[in-house]
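pls design
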């Protein structure tokens, strides 16, 4: 069974966009907003 994690959850958001190894993900998100 597959579970999808919502980026609306604070912990998931920080894991996705707070990763120091991949700052380009956060930069892309901020540019899109």
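designed seq:
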């Amino acid at each position: 069974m597959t579970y999808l994690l919502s980026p609306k959850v604070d912990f998931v958001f920080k894991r996705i966009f707070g990763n120091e190894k991949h700052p380009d993900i956060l930069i892309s998100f901020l540019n899109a907003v």
